[in-house]
Each structure stands twice: as C-alpha cells, then as structure tokens.
C-alpha cells in the first residue's frame, strides 16, 4: 500500500493498515529511523475500546433513547388528526 506526502508533509494512513493495527483518530504515532526504512509505531494513545461498564452504560443510554423515540412515534400515530375516516366519506357524498 502506498501513501503520498502532502505539501505540509502529512501522510494519510491507509484504512486497511489503520484498521489492522487499531489506529484511530487522535492516536499518536512515532516515526522511527530503521536503517534505510522508517518504522511507524503507535505511542501514547488511549486504550483501545471501552471497558465492560462503559459499554453497558452506552447500551443503556441507547436503549433509553430508542424507547423515547418509539413512544413519540406512537403518540403521533394515535393522536387526533382532526378528522375521521367516516367524515371523509360523508363529505364526498355517495357516488
């Protein structure tokens, strides 16, 4: 895989490489000389993933939001529209 150096000397890490080595936005990486090559290491980055308690907390928050959305939809569907189906037929008259 190849990457191009920009005029600001920035390099984009290919997605496949970032995914494989779990390099995320905000992670720090170090460029280290290795003879005629350059070695790239992820350093000083935050831990990968969330712990069990954080995942459960986010799951509970998402579940609560989903229930609130469903209740809002139900309220809209059963709300008063200002007319009934029978009234539509009465207005149109028998054909």
Question: How would the blueprint of this fold be written?
Answer:
Layout (H helix, E strand, L loop, with lengths): L14 H6 L7 E7 L2 E7 L8 H27 L6 H8 L3
Antiparallel strand pairs: 1-2
Describe the fold and architecture:
Helices cover 43% and strands 15% of the residues. The mean pLDDT is 83. It has a two-stranded antiparallel sheet. The protein has 95 residues and is an alpha+beta fold. The protein folds into two domains: 1-46, Pemi-like Protein 1, Chain: D (Ribbon); 49-78.
Notable characteristics:
alpha+beta; two-stranded antiparallel ribbon; 95 residues; 3 helices; Pemi-like Protein 1, Chain: D; 43% helix
Briefly, what is this?
This protein has three helices and two strands. With 95 residues, the protein is an alpha+beta fold.
